[in-house]
Amino acid sequence: MSLELTAPAPDVPDVADDGVWLECIETGETYAPFDEIRYTSDHGHLLEVRYANPPTFEDFQGEGRGVWRYRSALPFEEGVSLPEGDTPLHEAPRLREDIGVNTLRIKHEGMNPTGSFKDRGMTVGVRVAKELGVDRLACASTGNTSAALAAYGARGGMETLVLLPSGKVAAGKIAQAALHDARILEVDGNFDSCLDIVQDLAERGEVYLLNSLNPFRLEGQKTIGLEILEAFRDDYGRVPDRIVLPVGNAGNTSALYKAFRELVQSGALDPEQVPKLTGVQAEGAAPMVEAIENGWEDTKRWDEVETRATAIRIGNPVNAPKALPGIRETDGTAVAVSDEEITEAQRDLAGEGIGVEPASAASVAGLRKLRHEGVVDADEDVVCLTTGHLLKDPDAAFEAGGEPEPVANDTEAVLEHIGAE
Ligand code: F0G
Q1: What is the pLDDT of residue 248?
Q2: How far is the C-alpha of 373 from the C-alpha of 278, rounded, in Å?
Q3: Omega before 83 within 30 of 0, i.e. cis
């Protein structure tokens, strides 16, 4: 199987363009990368971007910061950039102590230009759209993808169309899509039905699809894993034991696994060093957890999904066939957390000065739960990914945080109110 951690570097097929091609993850069929618009194989299976030369850490030296530092692991030398990546790997000492692990670092992807990791995928995806000569970009979204698509589309001078589940997208995200002038369609259905429609539009040639079904998006998102490994090695001289991340469509899980697989292929990383990929979902939208617990090859679609973490309110994770092997081959796991646990973790992160949206806090909630259950050991070095910024979802922040207190326009009244002597 081509998704094994120790799969050797593939032979370069004739269809390769400058050492880059697309390959079906099920059958190994190969396709030229930029001759035609293509999201899946002829049989509807997922595709991966493949390279003649998988990268080593040395390739990144002296290449600047951010996503394009990793150009040797990407299909282009540069992209439509704002720029993105180079996000902080925060320490969180009180949280580390409280959860009880050897090391805890928070990779805060909310610090990207539009406030989520989606920017890493879009800088590559919109570059590919330019290569293909398309002019209308589209996505289905729980919010963050639409914000990133709108901004990067605007940057690239392209038209953008976004389909959102009506009433289920946080205010900050719609505001971004609106100001960057995406055409916003609110669909009376959930994210999964929006994606069904956008896929139909893409098949009919009306739009270029930039959801994570598009294999090029995941290439940009691979750089999260590369940044984590580089920064962790710089600080501790080793790589983390485990990376915990929120899961919706399982794009990031697939992308991180691909980053590590390519480093193993080049000999830059030993297979046993690869961090255990640990996915976290909300209890009300947990098809990946169900598939891991039952040993299934794919997920079963959940038609009814609900969670306060609207970013991951997804019942049909399209990248599951890539992500499930990633979790299993790295000896990771998947866990579901309640909305209350998510809110608690959001407050815990805020208490360390790190402001995240609810879906992001799922990673910390999941780590706490797995540590409590003894699945995660006390001696582990762990990185939690926080995927989106606090300001994405102001309503959730107000609900989780303290109340503003009205006071009179008078110093004495304020002193009395705050209980000063
Ligand atoms: N966290 C946040 C903040 C997200 O916005 C998403 C996905 C995820 C986690 C899940 O990532 O899909 O790679 O497993 N948001 C998409 C969107 C679906 O439309 O913005 P994944």
Answers
A1: 98
A2: 14
A3: yes
